[in-house]
Amino acid sequence: RLVPRASDDTGSDPAPSASAPPPEPPSSPPGKAIAGAGFALGVALFASGLGGGAPTLASLEKDAVPLDVALANGRPTVVEFYADWCEVCKESAPTVFDVERKFGGDVNFVMLNIDNTKWGGEMDQYGVDGIPHLVFLDKNGQSYGQVVGKFPKAALEQNVQALAEGRQNLPFAKFQEGASVARAPDIVAAPQSAVDDPRGGAVYNADPRAHG
């Protein structure tokens, strides 16, 4: 006599006695793999200083044009005298970096470390007795003015733009002999006639092409 096969309470047939192979784990979606690669690239760029880290004096020096090249390539030049221990130089590095990125195709940017005795002659030539000390040279190497000490970004941009356009009268510059100290209200009233100087406030310039 045939005996009917028993079924479970759910009405489904019991599973076969032989066990089925385990399912394969799902593969990672393409988006996740791309995101992981992007993160790794970002970490590598940040570690190498290209991922948006604050510009430093070392990075400016690395990208700077050698002085002899700058004086021979027919372009105007900004020469910055600096030192690694100079706090104002460090603070101004991001400003110089931004302006260099904007005008670097038309203007040379040169970095000279005053602790290197190699630049003693240039320090004497431009009367460097405080840093940062920026000298603005035309395409023939003639000085059109200098800025000493802290300076606003707008002042540097306007000077470099004038230099790039071949203008001799730089809006912000200073000279040493005969310079008179301007009061803070005068800077606000006539922002194109004074620059910050850590040795004595703002220095008024009557002739932006003069230098010491």
TrEMBL record:
One of its GO terms (molecular function) is oxidoreductase activity, acting on a sulfur group of donors, disulfide as acceptor. InterPro entries: Thioredoxin-like_sf, Thioredoxin_domain, TxlA/HCF164. Residues 9-165 form the Thioredoxin domain. GO terms for cellular component: chloroplast thylakoid membrane. Residues 1-33, 191-212 are annotated as: Disordered. GO terms for biological process: cytochrome b6f complex assembly. Signal peptide: none annotated. Pfam families: Thioredoxin (PF00085). Residues 19-29 have a biased composition (Pro residues). This is Thioredoxin domain-containing protein. It comes from Micromonas pusilla. The lineage of its organism: Eukaryota, Viridiplantae, Chlorophyta, Mamiellophyceae, Mamiellales.
